[in-house]
Hints:
Blueprint (H helix, E strand, L loop, with lengths): L1 H7 L11 H15 L6 H8 L3 H5 L5 H19 L8 H18 L1 H10 L4 H21 L3 H30 L17 H8 L9 H21 L1
Amino acid sequence: MARQAVADKRQRRERGSISVDEIINGAFDVAAEVSVDGLSMPLLAKHLDVGVTSIYWYFRKKDDLLNAMTDRALGQYDFATPFVEGQDWRESLRAHARKMRQTFRDNPILCDLILIRGTFGREATLAAFQKLEKAIATLVEAGLSAEDAFDTYSSISVHTQGVAVLERLNDKSTDAESPRHSGMSVVDPETMPLIAQLTQKGHRIGAADDINFEYGLNCILDHASRLIDAG
C-alpha cells in the first residue's frame, strides 16, 4: 500500500521544465496569499511543485526574484496610469494622480514592491525617467518653466505615493489586528470645538484619506496655475 501511495503521488517537475515567467507568475500568486514579506523560495517551490534548486537556477537569492517582480509590476503600473495631456494639463494631471493612487490601493503587491521596497532594475529605472521627461515637456508646453514643471510633477508624485504608502501601512496594521490609534478619542467638544466639529464632518489630522489627498493635490495644482499665470 505504501508503495502504491508513492506511485500515485504526483511527480515533482524536473529542473529546466519551468520558465522564468512561470516562476515570476507563481511568485505573484504566493505573494497575494502571504504578502511580499512572507514570500520565500521554499514556499514558492512548493506552490510550483518543483525543487527549490530549480528556482535558484534562475534567481540566486530572493532579492533577485523581487527585482524581477518589481520590473513586471512597474510595467503593469505604467500601463494602468493615464498620462499627462498638454491641452488640459490640470485635469489630466489630476486624473493621473488619482489613478496612480487607486492603482496602488487596488494592488497591494504593487505598492509593496514599487513604493515600500523601492529597488528597481536599470531597465525599469530608464523607462521611468523617459516617462518623466515626457511629463516635464508637457508641463513646459503648458507654460511652466522646466524647473517648475519638474518640481510640480515631483511634488504630485511624492504626495500621491506618500498617501498610498500610508494607506498600505494602515491596512497592514489593521490586518495584524493592531489598528493605528487615530487620536480622535481625546477630542473634547468643550475645549476643542473646532476640531470636534470638523471631525464630525469626516476631517482627520494626518490621515491618508480622500479629503487630505484631494486638498494636497489641489494645493499643488493651484500653485502651478499661479506660476503659469504669472509667466
